[in-house]
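Field reference: sequence -> structure
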Amino acid sequence: MSFEVLLAKSRGMCAGVDRAIRAVTLALDLYKDKKVYVLHEVVHNKHVVDDLRSAGAHFVETLEEVAPNSVLIFSAHGVGIETEKKAHDLGFTVIDATCPVVSAIHKKMNKAGTLNQEAIVIGHKGHQEVLGTVGQYTGSKDKLHVILTVDDVKDLEIDGDNAFFATQTTLSVDETRQTVEALKQKYPNIKGPKSDDTCRATQVRQNAVAQLAKECDLVLIAGSKNSSNSNRLKEVAVVNGSHAYLIDDSTQIDLSWFENVNKVGLSAGASAPEYVVTEIVEFLEQHGASSVSEFGFELKEKSFSLPKELEQI
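Structure field:
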């Protein structure tokens, strides 16, 4: 068994993920006299969460689990207004690690609520980012709608002349475009982004995987099962003609996948650490990879400053 490995240059952690992880790491260092809690997984990656938990971070799903006088960090996915207020009222030292791209959408949702506009969120119901975005809307709840597909648009009945839409940042670019187009066709006066709110990092990684899939028989995506952007990368690979698997690390690789395979593509979701990619490459080199070369365009990633609560320290 012998195959080439093509490694996407545009892969792995985005600026928002890096910022959130740095925020937790710095908080653990600065607040040694307090417990540091993170509300929900700071990013959706098993290795990142395990690493931070080992460093001393406590991950919780509710505010009731946070001990008094503790530090509380909001995850990169963001939270709703009620959660923000309750956390401050309970006296926690709050650090908001919401990705700035998501925060920008939150501000638009705030405005839509103030204007009591119909608000449509295109995204996966129950996903942490969508829950946070929905929770930023202060208007009448019967004017708040979460949809995903073109069929959902067909079932929608709203006042399109007083409506606003936003999208989850980690969706499939192509599928989201179809939903947005259907929404604008049905409601020409609806307000929102020109295309969608999919972040640039998500778009770049999806484009890279699309090109990778056209060159390879098999594509591996390093990322966790609950990571929306990682799942979308797998879907993009399949749509573009390749078999694809989403794996946390090399322990989930089945060597039977590589039978009759000449080229293997490898990329990583926006929340996957680079050391996982390195470990997968080493595994592939030990099990049939004849060469490993980078593929595609170089990733030009922006950087975000730390949360203001940490910058002031």
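Note: The first strand starts at residue 3 and ends at 8.
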